[in-house]
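Deliverable D5.2: sample structural annotation.
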Amino acid sequence: MRIAVVLNTSWNIYNFRMNFLRELARQGHEIHTLAPKDEYTRHLTEAGFIHHDIRMDSRGANPIKDSALILELLLSYRKIRPDIILHFTIKPNVYGTIAAALLRIPVINNVCGLGTVFLKKNLVSWIAIMLYKVSFRFANKVFFQNPDDLQLFIQKKLVAENATDLLPGSGIDLKKFVPAEYTKRDTFTFLMVSRLITDKGVMEYVDAVRKLKKAGIKARFQVLGAMDPEHKRGIQPDVIHRWIEEGVIEYLGTTDDVREYIQQADCIVLPSYREGTPRTLLEAASSARPIIATDVPGCNHVVIHNYNGLLCKLKDADDLARRMEEITTLDEDTLRSMGTNGRVKMEAEYDESIVIKKYLGALKDLKRAS
């Protein structure tokens, strides 16, 4: 089959979908990738995939402006003539499905996360929800990354229940992210791995750090991830540099390989407002590191309180600070046990092979039905 795979960035394809696409290619399928061009696009073509550059603003949330994407994808799909299209991330899911429906091409969608449209109630969010309702009528299959998102879509009548299925996020490569020997550091080290946007809980993390420092807690507080000042909810560089100059956080910049940073940390923190299934937490748990995350959909499916980490309240820097202080007081054996529990959970529930098998099954079902 000729399969088109559509995401909001080439970086996303390279970092989260390569093993899956390689397996599809190994089985003889012709793979076309569609995403905006970036420095990771060359890796896709080097892997033998046929890449098509598209214009897509992954940051904005203006349905009227983004509707032009329908035409662009329609023209791309007409040119490629795929047998099936796999959509990931919000805009491909919505606008790509509409374009595919006009050409009568079957699609499989993946709801990686809900974005901000379900966190706010305004005209833009209402339009976005209506677009979901219209577009998902034409989806042959819709995968969700946590049961809360799945039930929300069914409850709001945005998707037919018989077209849905559940995945363990994008899965984790257990051979790449492996446990490293753990010894509690003399200076406890926290690491937050995230894009620097407010929805990830960066402000709460910084506020919690300030509280801990004021209380005399001796620890290192690190942040690893890209600045994204053009994002509507991006934190401006001058604010971040001020945090660095004040000694509130250690900013580690960006990396193509987070494993070393995770292994050098005592605890990974992600106080996000809502997630599909956060990749950061899968990587941390697979690497056998304790986690502190928000008690919200997505995060609380990866983290079980007092089992492989601690859960804190949403948008509550005081509670986050309490959890961070609490974890510093745990002895090395308890921290090591939390890490081990996280690894066991990843092996049982989040192995990337589970995701690949689900997709291969869905593709076979669609082929039989055609």
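Annotation notes: Residues 16 and 170 are 7 Å apart (CA to CA). The chain has 16 helices and 13 strands.
The annotation will be released with the project's public dataset once the embargo ends.
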